[in-house]
Write a structure and sequence with these properties.
alpha+beta; Alpha-Beta Plaits; six-stranded antiparallel sheet; 26% strand; globular
């Protein structure tokens, strides 16, 4: 049997956010039935000139998938929601799913310092 991993992820969107985040949540709930979601938080953009605010939400899940398999799956969901390299360049983000931690290893230390991630994680801890 494969080892189980505890993971923390953060999803965000600034374009048709409720629609695309809802789609991502549905797919992630189906794939990972034990996923636990934090509150959705509305945040201002960081590091971009795009003035559109974001919706962000953190989640905690258990899986036997490794980090690379998770990232690949997350990218497939992003693409299904219209995420392209051009959309990223223009600051229009239909959906972004970041694997922040697996077990006790922080995979994106720079993201963990961002205000919107900290807000989303606070929403996860309150549940």
């Amino acid at each position: 049997m494969k080892n189980m991993h505890q993971c923390i992820l953060c999803i965000g969107s600034n374009y048709r956010a409720e629609t695309y985040m809802g789609m991502a949540e549905m797919l992630l709930n189906q794939r990972f039935p034990s996923i636990r979601w934090g509150k959705t938080v509305k945040t201002l953009p960081e590091g971009t000139t795009c003035p559109t605010s974001y919706l962000n939400r953190a989640a905690r899940l258990d899986t036997n998938w490794d980090a690379d398999t998770l990232r690949h799956y997350f990218k497939s969901i992003e693409k299904a929601c219209g995420r392209t390299s051009l959309s990223k360049q223009t600051g229009i983000i239909p959906l972004d799913i970041d694997l922040l931690m697996i077990d006790n290893t922080v995979l994106k230390p720079e993201d963990m310092q961002k205000h919107y991630v900290r807000q989303a994680l606070e929403g996860l801890e309150e549940k």
